[in-house]
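stage 2 :: seqdesign
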């Protein structure tokens, strides 16, 4: 990790540090546009060819046989089954508590306004894969979809190099009652769910994280003529740790390495007012890196990551708010005291014990979070992400009598005489 000293940064370099290492550039966007067009024209044929060319996998069946989902349990050890059960219970408890209530209010006599909620009818869950079976993302996306009551839930995930979707993914989907699983990944999976093919249905909203190609595809399919909704632009993982000299260097290093493990495009950042801590963490990272199975991925991420020495924690908070990380860990003494000053983060982890990995897997909050700085404007996935609000208006006689002059006046001020006439007619009823 490179180290920067905030007081010595030339003008504009603060903003350079905030930039992410792997943005969605014009080249990526053009490539994804071509993929979407191929899927639009050729459907399943394009899916098979793209999966072979881009992923090096020749898929026989685009949809996984539901029987394989049932029998996948035979390949899952008991301790993993138990872990999935515990994690599911915690995630369900947290998301069930988020269910929004219906609202009814009489804004004035005879004017009854309501806000109701309905589930999104068809949702597509994208589960990244290829190098790791992210069964945790199945839980994070599938549980709120079930709780929201979405009538149709489909799941798309890439096959491993052996041509098979990992048993862990299939088993976890099965525990949630998700039986419609498709063995495709990348931008072509997003295009298929957005457009529909011979095998894959078009959905109303797409959920899930992914690399820059997946992120670009999600952004493009929100535009005409596709007009598919998405959750958040959840790209490569980010972690910013704000720490002081009370932090445990070994834990800090472990947390940085754990998020760097996600691979290319990810970034981990340590912001601290302790120069000694930076040195200790670097040594711990070097020590702990040895023997890790994804050492190569981690080293590439660490080359794009950095430490920032600030004059005070207040300056560190200012940088954290500007960076707007996906994950923000407050590894300081009295960490709770700083929470009120955090304005922009996908998720905040209070204190040194609150490692991001607990949020990644089993504590309860969702791990599908905004990346790339868009945490300045939006949050992560919740049960409400799978629902849509619907307003309802009921006008009664006394409401029309009282409100029609107001509407007529406003409509005429806008030069909309037909609007005024429609209100006037109800006023004399």
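stage 2 :: out
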């Amino acid at each position: 990790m490179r180290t920067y000293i905030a007081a010595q940064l030339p003008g504009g370099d603060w903003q350079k540090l905030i930039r992410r290492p792997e943005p969605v550039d014009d080249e990526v966007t053009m490539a994804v546009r071509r993929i979407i067009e191929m899927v639009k024209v050729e459907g399943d044929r394009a899916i098979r060819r793209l999966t072979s060319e881009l992923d090096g996998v020749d898929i026989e069946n685009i949809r996984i046989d539901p029987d394989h989902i049932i029998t996948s349990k035979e390949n899952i050890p008991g301790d993993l089954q138990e872990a999935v059960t515990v994690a599911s219970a915690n995630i369900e408890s947290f998301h069930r508590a988020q269910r929004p209530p219906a609202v009814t209010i009489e804004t004035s006599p005879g004017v009854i306004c309501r806000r109701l909620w309905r589930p999104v009818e068809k949702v597509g869950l994208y589960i990244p894969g290829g190098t790791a079976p992210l069964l945790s993302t199945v839980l994070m996306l599938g549980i709120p979809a079930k709780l929201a009551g979405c009538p149709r839930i489909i799941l798309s995930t890439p096959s491993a190099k052996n041509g098979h979707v990992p048993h862990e993914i299939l088993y976890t989907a099965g525990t949630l009652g998700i039986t419609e699983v498709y063995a495709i990944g990348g931008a072509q999976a997003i295009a298929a769910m957005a457009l529909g093919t011979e095998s894959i249905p078009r959905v109303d909203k797409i959920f899930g994280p992914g690399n820059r190609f997946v992120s670009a595809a999600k952004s493009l399919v929100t535009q005409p003529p596709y007009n598919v909704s998405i959750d958040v632009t959840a790209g490569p993982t980010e972690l910013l740790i704000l720490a002081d000299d009370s932090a445990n260097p070994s834990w800090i290093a472990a947390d940085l390495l754990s998020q760097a493990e996600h691979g290319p495009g990810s970034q981990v950042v340590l912001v601290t007012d302790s120069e000694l801590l930076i040195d200790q963490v670097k040594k711990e990272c070097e020590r702990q890196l040895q023997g890790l199975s994804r050492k190569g991925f981690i080293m590439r991420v660490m080359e794009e990551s950095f430490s920032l020495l600030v004059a005070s924690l207040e300056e560190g908070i200012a940088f954290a708010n500007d960076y707007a990380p996906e994950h923000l860990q407050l590894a300081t003494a009295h960490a709770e005291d700083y929470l009120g000053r955090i304005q922009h983060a996908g998720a905040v982890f209070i204190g040194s014990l609150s490692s991001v990995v607990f949020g990644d897997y089993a504590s309860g909050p969702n791990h599908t979070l905004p990346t790339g700085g868009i945490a300045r404007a939006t949050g992560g996935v919740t049960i409400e992400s799978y629902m849509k609000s619907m307003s309802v208006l009921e006008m009664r006689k006394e409401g029309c009598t009282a409100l029609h002059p107001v509407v007529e006046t406003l409509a005429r001020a806008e030069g909309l005489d037909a609007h005024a006439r429609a209100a006037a007619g109800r006023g004399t009823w």
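stage 3 :: structure notes
- The chain has a mean pLDDT of 94.
- The chain has 16 helices and 14 strands.
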